[in-house]
């Protein structure tokens, strides 16, 4: 799996199978920290930000149901986040792997 960050004014992240020229998914993010993930089959998930002093991000499916919630918890010497899966499963049958807390490096 190849993951590549592209762009500066309009940042996006692409996900491809190793050796492939076709994107499996593209995450586009705007200046407010919101955006969308579009899969190669056309399925789209919205990436929404909330909170100011303690921001968190939610991934919503096409029906507006939350798939996961990401709550960063970083400090001077630590970087981690809580990742909470609940709500709808992706309609395409994609598999989501979850843990109650995921470390970020």
Q: N-to-C terminal Cα separation, in Å? A: 18 Å
* Global Rg: 14 Å
How many strands appear in the DSSP assignment? Answer: 9
How much beta, percentage-wise? over 45%
Count of helix runs: 0
Order of helices and strands: EEEEEEEEE
Q: Could you estimate the helical fraction of the residues in percent? A: under 10%
Largest sheet: 9 strands, antiparallel
Uncertain residue ranges? 95-105
Q: Mean of residue pLDDT?
A: 79
Which structural class is indicated by helix and strand composition?
A: mainly beta
Strand order of the largest sheet: 1-2-3-4-5-6-7-8-9
For the record, the count of structural domains works out to 1
Shape: globular
Question: Could you characterize what this model shows?
Answer:
It is a single chain. Helices cover 0% and strands 50% of the residues. The protein has a nine-stranded antiparallel β-sheet, with no helix packed on it. It has one domain. By secondary structure, it is mainly beta. The model is unreliable at 95-105 (pLDDT under 50).
Q: How are the elements arranged and paired?
A:
Blueprint: E1 2-6, E2 12-16, E3 23-29, E4 35-39, E5 44-50, E6 56-60, E7 66-74, E8 79-85, E9 102-103
Antiparallel strand pairs: 1-2, 2-3, 3-4, 4-5, 5-6, 6-7, 7-8, 8-9
Relevant terms:
9-stranded antiparallel β-sheet, mainly beta, disordered C terminus, 105 residues, globular
